[in-house]
Amino acid sequence: MKDLSDVELEGKVVALRADLNVPIGRDGSIIDYLRIETIIPTLRYLTDRNAKIVIYSHFGRPKDGPDPNMSTKRLVKPLAKALQKQVSFATDCVGDPVKDALTTASLGTVVLAENVRFHSGELANDDEFSAALAKHADLYINDAFSASHRAHASVVGITKHLPSFPGLSLTQEIKAFDKVLTHPKSPLVAVIGGAKVSTKLGVLGKIDRVNAMLIGGGMANTFLAAQGIDMGSSLVEHKMIKEAQQILESAASSNVIVMLPVDGIIAADMTETSIAEVTQVTEIPPDWSMLDIGPTTCGLFSDVINNAGTVIWNGPMGMFEQPQYAEGTRAIATALAESSAYCVVGGGESVAAVRQMSLAAEIDHVSTGGGAALELLEGKPLPGIAALE
């Protein structure tokens, strides 16, 4: 892969693919600024060298062309504040709006283009649309790891029309996952959570690549049910029980340790006012649900993490959005922060948790990628990265 440090940037126009698809609250405010913060080092690197940058990003999932509720225009002010530089806006991502905005912009400044998904050619990876994105730039930089598992025009197609390079954060992501996937310090431990087995079946199917796997969250219910345990009213994917059994059998034949919860935090309902209790997983009442791993499980999981050489974590241990079901996720985040192992956190909810708990700075690498991280862990090549090679 080419190195950005070898590129002459003075006076050049750079097309930069970022992922500014930040989470937005009901009041329209930004909930988490991670994806904006992530591209700031690359933007500063480029502006300090007198390049002129046009940023391409998607925002939301518009279905039928432009949607004012999904305009990237709302990101101009927060981006300018984070960068501490003026950011101008192009009312489209192709054609005269981009050309005019770049003509007006000074060297060392940034233009944010309108949502690339307002054009059907983006998702279709249409070559004509890709060429239009490339038309006004001298080179292309991909700094959107979290979008690099998508073979879209602004991620893959544009690389056919411009010299293409990885951005600084994309390079960091590649190096971090290389440490986990190619040269992990043993023992390698995967901590997998989240609601459903089906969403992470690809990763779970690669169980022979790790030394130990700790399974929490809603998906643990399905694995416990696969062992014949009555999970009461807990979320269980009954259609995935056979797959869960096969994964456990595969782990046993590969000498992989699989740890499931031995106790949990249970409640009769999922409201914020529900009374939470601790119980063994074998003693869940019929009308109660397990909504977090219990304190004994937290201790057992933390011990494994503390003795690991490398840890990858994807998915919360419970309904951490509610305080009474957040302790399991907090325990894992704290164990990673305190561990001497090389630790990588990927996946939107896991990343949100470590940031909410102010532990992100204590963890070796916090990835912006959810789906991209999962596909890398499955051993799949990411189209956006392959296009840069």
How would you explain this protein's 3D organization?
By secondary structure, the chain is an alpha/beta fold. It folds into two domains: 4-168, Rossmann fold; 184-377, 3-Layer(aba) Sandwich (Rossmann fold). Helix content is 33%, strand content 16%. The protein has 14 helices and 15 strands. It has helices spanning 34-48, 76-83, 96-104, 120-123, 127-134, 168-181, 201-204, 217-226, 241-253, 295-306, 327-338, 348-356, 371-377, 383-386, and strands at 13-17, 52-56, 87-90, 110-113, 139-142, 164-166, 188-192, 212-215, 257-259, 263-267, 277-280, 289-293, 310-314, 342-345, 365-366. The protein has a six-stranded parallel sheet, with helices on both faces. It has a six-stranded parallel sheet with strand order 9-8-7-13-14-15, with helices on both faces. It has a three-stranded antiparallel sheet with strand order 11-10-12. It is elongated, with a radius of gyration of 23 Å. The N and C termini lie close together (5 Å). The mean pLDDT is 94.
DSSP E strands, number: 15
Number of domains: 2
* Topology order in helix (H) and strand (E) letters: EHEHEHEHHEEHEHEHHEEEEHEHEHEHH
CATH topology-level fold name of the largest domain: Rossmann fold
Amount of helix: 25-40%
Contiguous runs where pLDDT drops below 50 for at least 5 residues: none
Look at the structure and name the CATH superfamily of the largest domain.
Answer: Phosphoglycerate kinase, N-terminal domain
Strand order of the largest sheet: 3-4-2-1-5-6
**On the 0-100 scale, what is the average pLDDT?**
94
- Main sheet overview: 6 strands, parallel
The shape is elongated
Global Rg: 23 Å
The tally of helices reads 14
CATH class of the largest domain: Alpha Beta
Structural class: alpha/beta
Give the strand content.
15-25%
